[in-house]
From TrEMBL:
SUPFAM superfamilies: Ribosomal protein S18 (SSF46911). Coiled coil: none annotated. One of its GO terms (cellular component) is cytosolic small ribosomal subunit. Residues 1-23 are annotated as: Disordered. The gene is rpsR. Keywords: Ribonucleoprotein, Ribosomal protein, RNA-binding, rRNA-binding. This is Small ribosomal subunit protein bS18. It comes from Anaerolinea thermophila. Pfam families: Ribosomal_S18 (PF01084).
């Protein structure tokens, strides 16, 4: 009984990393700011900051962006600063009021 459960759990773990007949190996994420020392996080660089915001306007988490903790905190601060002076929206896309 325990062997059957162990085998089924091993099959589930193997199936997570397969796409079709190929095996899926996730790429390791790295902090682009640590690797490229010339790139600075600045609230005026809106194009850079937009890459770290979802369509809804939320700040993307570290596990999605791959940034280190130090630079994720700096990104959050600069995004909030850019929102405060209206360079970035607080909500994403275009907000439409219901006509009722």
């Amino acid at each position: 009984m325990a062997d059957e459960r162990r085998e089924s759990s091993e099959q589930n773990q193997d199936s997570r990393f397969q796409r079709g007949n190929r095996h899926y190996i996730p790429r390791p994420k790295y902090c682009q700011f640590c690797s490229d020392k010339t790139q600075e996080i600045d609230y005026k660089n809106v194009e850079l900051l937009k890459r770290f915001i979802t369509e809804e306007g939320k700040i993307r988490p570290r596990r999605q962006t791959g940034t280190c903790a130090k630079h994720q905190r700096a990104l959050a601060t600069e995004i909030k600063r850019a929102r405060h002076i209206a360079l970035l929206p607080f909500i994403g896309g275009t907000w439409q009021k219901n006509n009722r």
